Amino acid sequence: MSNVTVTQITTAKEMRTFVRFNYELYKDCPYAVPDLLEDTLETLDPHSNPAFRFCKAAYFLAHKDGKVVGRVAAIVNTRANERWGKQDARFGWIDFIDDIEVSRALLRAVEQWGHSQGMERIVGPLGFTDLDPEGMLTDGYDQLSTLCTIYNHPYYPEHMARLGLEKETGWVERKVFIPRGEHAANNTKYFRIAEMAKKRYGFRVRHFSSKNELRKGGYIQKILGVVNKAYAELYGYSELDENQMAWYAKRFIMMLDCRFLTVVENAEGEIIGTGVCIPSLSRAVQKAKGKLFPFGWIHIANELWLKRKHRILDMLLVGVLPEYQDKGANALFFADLIPHGISCGYEWAESHPQLEDNTASQMQWKNLDCTIHKHRAVFAKTINTKPAKTDNNDIQNQ
Hints:
single chain; Aminopeptidase; 2 domains; 15-stranded mixed beta sheet; globular; disordered C terminus
């Protein structure tokens, strides 16, 4: 009989333990970027995160020999399930030591909770929405992670296979070199296409002089409205409503550098595409040990506001309305970004995860020097509805 127990979180203290377990597990790993404590607590809080108007969640900790050895969140997103015709319980924020009994107990907890909610499958790692970290790393363990993606040890996907979960879909991430010297890609093609799109369709790039201008014009919400339409047909996408847009706008605006926010408008002044980048905060969050307070914010402020030379630029979002995707709108984004990247001394940009079967998205990089350096996947399994024998792996405190 296994001596692993799984308990459902019921207190604020347990929730902090849940979030900080990620830091404890990876504190000696040079490639992992810890969960940011304050942001993650807010995301998981039903009183703070507007996604809880259509989501349910439960959080579990695994214990062995008196120590916390794993964690997992179980989520039902009714909006996504209705959109895609699924009855899925998502699992996210999953971490565990290299012990198959621990990972088995955690996923059994998700199955049991999902079954109690009338679900038919478990699938993950996924968050409440696509703006939460998703996809288990399956390759690229020796590459620095980003603030908005998941890092995990190589044994994680091995456990998924041993426990009967199968890959459902996958993403790739690229290291995109800023064109210069040996990395002088055929970037001139983007400038030619951008000029053609401006002349033929009247497209133009809009810049913002300050974050205050973004706030007053409600532009973050408008940008996320474009993302809603651009990502609508992508795997598992859950449409953002106005409350969520306002919530994400408040969270992300402090990280933005207006030099690396590109908004593309059509001749009528309507936003049709966007590219959002920030200086990499990975090393800063590592130095802060995943906490803003009392002093962690200093490391992040140094990265965002000091006029220092950066090496890495993180792409948070790139999206173009479907009806403009074959008209050169995305070329305006690259034609705008490349000169800024060169002048600011960046060496490369880290792309956001892109679905490996999204041909249109994959093709946009063909004229740049880049390499795929990370793969990640979501795994799924049908819930076993047969009564399980009661043992120490069953959920406690429900």
